[in-house]
Amino acid sequence: MLDKKFLGTFLANKGLDAMLVSSVHNISYLSSYFGFSPLERDAYLLFTHDNRYIFTNPLYSHEAASQSSDIQIIVHTKNNPFPKNLATILSNKKLENIGFENDNITVVEYLKITSATPAHFIATSLDHLRITKIPSEIQKIKNACEIGDIALTTIKKYIKLGVTEKKLANLLDFTIKKLGADPSFPTIVAFGKNSSIPHHHTDDTSLKTQDIVLIDFGVRHDNYCSDMSRTFFNGKPTKKQKDIYATVLNSQHKAVTYIKDSLAKNSPVDAEKVDRIAREYITQRGYPSIPHSVGHGIGLEVHEAPPISPSSSDNIGEGMVFSIEPGIYLEGKFGVRIEDLYTIQSGKLIQLTQSPVSLQEI
Amino acid sequence: MLDKKFLGTFLANKGLDAMLVSSVHNISYLSSYFGFSPLERDAYLLFTHDNRYIFTNPLYSHEAASQSSDIQIIVHTKNNPFPKNLATILSNKKLENIGFENDNITVVEYLKITSATPAHFIATSLDHLRITKIPSEIQKIKNACEIGDIALTTIKKYIKLGVTEKKLANLLDFTIKKLGADPSFPTIVAFGKNSSIPHHHTDDTSLKTQDIVLIDFGVRHDNYCSDMSRTFFNGKPTKKQKDIYATVLNSQHKAVTYIKDSLAKNSPVDAEKVDRIAREYITQRGYPSIPHSVGHGIGLEVHEAPPISPSSSDNIGEGMVFSIEPGIYLEGKFGVRIEDLYTIQSGKLIQLTQSPVSLQEI
């Protein structure tokens, strides 16, 4: 995804001779090899001003090599474990100041690595490495969003009295896979009072008359993720439900308007302010504050930079892709969440998810 | 899962006043709350001689509290972040020697935690915490295995000319979910030469005459995992394929026989030796050495202690649940893997996966 110049500039800015990358999504991003498991430590990547190296076990060496032709693959074995192989490279290439992902490397890994080499290791977070997407990445996320829109339309006919949350989620996942993609995270289907739990675990609850139906799901296609939430009404919503739905939708709209206005004025789009505008619109109407962030960046991971939260210090700029997902949750009663993905291209806010958001009775 | 006595003994043996637990599966195990995401740091758990505490964010506090009634929930906020809350508890309860999972805590977390409190932190791996299962845990794994057996039988009819790997995997996943469970990891379906890559990523390859069909999948049910691999022949196998299939099956049988014999003689079952016996049976017949471990423990995670590998230092004992999964892979040609789960109960080896292993032409 990135050219050598970018990596060279990164090292120069940080005063580093090399950067040791350990988080699997950053390794994929920097190597274009997507085969390593996100659940195990299958590999490390080292980049210098001139070279990239992948340290991995024999199980991955052939495949990683075939897909990352200009990267040197160094295989670790029982007698040549990773810290030893890394130390050899650092010594041979006279690399002394090495950045490492301090928010990813564990204490035991750090001790093993640093005890094998006299090199100096410098804490260097890469949590903003992938914040700005190039057009081909945005296109992939857009494709994932389109698959999500089609899948949701396809399964809407199954939302009827008696269907269980698990059955509906299974049909949605099956449809996503039939369309050549995968769910990007475990699909959330929440009926009735389950919708009041933002991270509800889809269960065997069956749909009853007047229940709210909250669906929060994403698609991973060509390694890039989408994320979308919709809330439907099985039957006629009450006056209060209508008001809550309108409030959530307006909250999203307020955040969008702030972004559009800022872009039009060429002024910075403050992620913390996006969160605050959506959040305060809801609390000012007497509803409880959103118990989660208003949004998040998305790409190879469902949650990545920029965070759109009360503690965010990012500005949202050209090429970033992010969600805006306000919600109102009445404990033990019901919840409403509406989530869409957006990007900024050529100075304009573009919405990527396209499923309708007007209040729908099913 | 564990009584207070066990935790007290653990602390006493390690000379600790408390243990800080960060890995999500250990937190679930010690709290019986399974709602935290395995992909984010949603919570920490601290256990002392007298108490357990969960530190989490507001999103999880209610649900965790309702499902772990005797655990104190401490919510972190912007002004009261986790390290501060932890420091308060340690100070109030006069806890000085604190174990932490050095193979899980990141460098940045370690620095934040240790700079907030004068307590002394001691590297303490919990990677063997869950190695021995109680009967109710084994029953859950057995149930997951049964669902896997049923699902595989159900989808066998779809293994026919022209079906794609992805379509078959999707049908298998759909069937697993219809049975009320979930895949425990991304289902591997590998046709023809794809079967020569042990961790092949299921793709759009379609099934051709004389192709090998390798399926490696697992089920998660009631939080516990199964794992099973089967290799079928679409049409008549060649003489060489037959020999390889028989060699892999015999390799598994040799490992099983060593375990049974050791148990009968009341002698220790050496995990490294289980690996070696299966591995050497294959290399002695002129085939390449297995490019992965011969087996692994399984439970809340698909891969957990004990490892059954050349570097394992564990003995396999009563209540452990583990796979034996030898394979032969001919690069660019085809591969055969057979994997079953076993446990030891009342001093006897019991096989948990039950799908037939005799050579099957489809």
Instruction: Calculate the mean pLDDT score of chain A and round it.
Output: 96
Shape of chain A: elongated
Give the CATH superfamily of the largest domain in chain A: Creatinase/methionine aminopeptidase superfamily
User: Portion of residues in helices of chain A?
Assistant: 25-40%
Q: Could you characterize what this model shows?
A:
Two copies of one chain form a homodimer. Chain A is α+β, with helices and mostly antiparallel strands and 362 residues long. The first copy, chain A, has two domains: 4-123, 3-Layer(aba) Sandwich (Creatine Amidinohydrolase, Chain A, domain 1), CATH 3.40.350; 135-351, Alpha-Beta Complex (Creatine Amidinohydrolase). The first copy, chain A, is 34% helix and 23% strand. Chain A has helices at 4-14, 24-31, 58-67, 82-92, 107-115, 135-155, 165-178, 239-264, 271-284, and strands spanning 18-21, 43-48, 52-56, 72-75, 97-100, 120-123, 182-183, 188-191, 212-217, 219-221, 224-225, 228-233, 269-270, 295-297, 304-308, 315-316, 321-324, 327-330, 334-337, 340-345, 348-351. In chain A, strands 4-3-2-1-5-6 form a six-stranded mixed sheet, sandwiched between helices. In chain A, α6 (135-155) packs across α7. The longest helix of chain A has 26 residues, at 239-264. The radius of gyration of chain A is 23 Å and the shape is elongated. The mean pLDDT of chain A is 96. At the A-B interface, α3, α5 and α7 of A face α3, α5 and α7 of B.
